[in-house]
Amino acid sequence: DQQVKQNSPSLSVQEGRISILNCDYTNSMFDYFLWYKKYPAEGPTFLISISSIKDKNEDGRFTVFLNKSAKHLSLHIVPSQPGDSAVYFCAASGYGGSQGNLIFGKGTKLSVKP
Amino acid sequence: NAGVTQTPKFRILKIGQSMTLQCTQDMNHNYMYWYRQDPGMGLKLIYYSVGAGITDKGEVPNGYNVSRSTTEDFPLRLELAAPSQTSVYFCASSTSTYEQFFGPGTRLTVL
Fold first, then answer.
1. Averaged in consecutive runs of 10 residues, what is the pLDDT profile of chain A (114 residues)?
2. How far apart, in whole angstroms, are the C-alpha atoms of residue A110 and residue A113?
3. How far apart are CA B33 and CA A101, in angstroms?
4. Mean pLDDT of the residues in chain B
5. Rounded-to-integer distance, Cα B39 and Cα A73, Å
6. How many whole angstroms from its chain centre is CA A18?
7. Number of neighbours of residue B18 by Cβ within 10 angstroms
């Protein structure tokens, strides 16, 4: 049973427009959420995170929104750039008491077209 | 500062062979992790370590072993390789429980 779900395998957006990537989770014990970005043949790199005590965190063009009642988070990229084309993974932590264990979604492949 | 390095980058094994995937970090991080990523799937935790001499199982530990004799190194051992272990393996490290720094990965094929 997937605890972190990214239901859209892919997303295509025009350069300059907003990209919205979605993530749902099932476990209310999760207390910290992260987004990672992955280019082909590279390891994932940390992008942005949010604690469950907040509902929004912003870093430059990237904003993560958390809706705890809906167990839903989203990553907004504004404006989208071709270099943002990558696979984006949502991850959650806090379940089971095992420090550092991240539960990852399957990822969403974002394509930003010039 | 090289971050997290992994060797080899690619490897083909025959069924039943064994090998060790190397992982080294130079950031003095206490926490280290091994993940595998199958095609179209997210990363799944194999083993992790909270410090030298301490290791614990993750979600998918069967068929693997680890050791952590130093802060820097966290090798992953595959014994009796099976086709189901064909995957991309990522090592990661962190200072906190959350933000993890990943290596470039090892692509392993078992035939």
1. 90 98 93 94 94 95 97 98 97 67 92 96
2. 10
3. 9
4. 94
5. 24
6. 15
7. 11
pLDDT digits (tens, 9 = 90+) for B5-37: 999 999 999 999 999 999 999 999 999 999 999
Identity (one letter) of the amino acid at B46? I
Which DSSP letter does residue B9 get?
Answer: S
In sequence order, what are the beta bridge partners of B92? B33, B102
**CA closest to B30 among chain A residues:** A100
User: How many helices, marked H, and strands, marked E, lie in chain A?
Assistant: 0, 11
Q: E strands, A15-107, where?
A: 19-25, 32-38, 45-51, 56-59, 62-67, 72-77, 86-93, 102-104
Least Cα distance to B38 among A66, A86, A104 occurs for A104
- Residue B39 sits at the chain A interface (C-beta within 8 Å): no
3 state DSSP class of A61: coil
Report the amino acid identity of residue B40: G
**Residue B40 sits at the chain A interface (C-beta within 8 Å):** yes
Chain-chain contact of B42 with A44 (C-beta, under 8 angstroms):
no
Across the interface, of B44, B90, B98, the residue whose CB is closest to A43 is B90
Residue with tokens 């604690």: A51
Mean pLDDT along residues B91-101? 86
Q: Taking the CB of residue A109, how many other CB atoms lie within 10 A of it?
A: 15
